[in-house]
Amino acid sequence: MATTLAANRLAERKLRDKQARRAQIIRAARQIAEAEGWSHVTVRRLSDEIAYSQPVLYAHFGSREGILAAVAIEGFQELGLTMEEARKRGKRGKTLAAVATAYLEFAASSPALYEAMFSLRLSKPFDDAATPAELHFAFTQLLALFAEQSSQPGVLSELFWASLHGIAELTRTKRFPLRRQPERVRALIERFTFPREERRRGVKSAMTVDAPVIQLVQDGVPGMALWIFLAQVSACPLLGRCGRPEMLGLTQARSTSHRFDLKPCTLLPTIAERAPCGPFDHSR
């Protein structure tokens, strides 16, 4: 009996030590990335920073890509908690705005972490049986916003996420001026808010897959709508396509996330007609 208890305590201590080392490695990777960029996060650099041999790091994660994946998963958990807190503390009628603001603040406060989550190659699948629980948890916070508002909460959650991601990326890369962020959030919330009688009847919302961005075009801001659309199809692995589409050659891109399976050129015909950059081919 005593021998068994001692063996259990030893196993528990080893597990705690392993978890502590894993957390230390992830923390060091995040700190280096935020200060210097992901190109400086290498197994050798991490080994020097935390005084562990490279074989120890490989034993925990298998490869540098495994470390990046662990960072991204941790980021999705933190993003999910951030949105959950904003959703729960948001006042009635202000929940969407609270979550949108919290999301954008999260992306702005940890740009390297956000990059690992959405821009770097991530081996973890989305919308799949093998999807990590942290990714499901983050998406569930968005899904909860539309569960009682529409007959298609999943699609609206995806579009809301895509819009937030587009704004976050375009602001980070200074394509969108930060001073207009409050206006963008207000406009976005208006497009995703449904009349009470429509929710009560359970009628399918007039806001279809492409309506939020098309509405921006009809309101006279096609540039903003097109920028958000291009960002969501080219930069977001959750909702976007494989790789980086060639400029305006969006019909060659294909979905890898199993969340959007629509060709981008059939998604937003109104933007295609009014885009000043050149024609979109609808024939494919």
Provide key terms for this protein:
284 residues, mainly alpha, Arc Repressor Mutant, subunit A, Tetracycline Repressor, domain 2, 2 domains, 64% helix, 0% strand, disordered C terminus
Order of secondary-structure elements = HHHHHHHHHHHHHH
Largest sheet: none
Distance N terminus to C terminus? 71 Å
State mean pLDDT (0 to 100 scale): 75
The gyration radius over C-alpha positions equals 22 Å
Please specify the SSE layout and strand pairing.
Blueprint: H1 2-36, H2 43-50, H3 54-61, H4 64-89, H5 95-109, H6 111-118, H7 133-146, H8 153-172, H9 181-191, H10 196-201, H11 211-218, H12 222-234, H13 264-267, H14 269-274
Helix pairs in contact: 1-4, 4-5, 4-6, 4-7, 5-8, 7-8, 8-12, 11-12
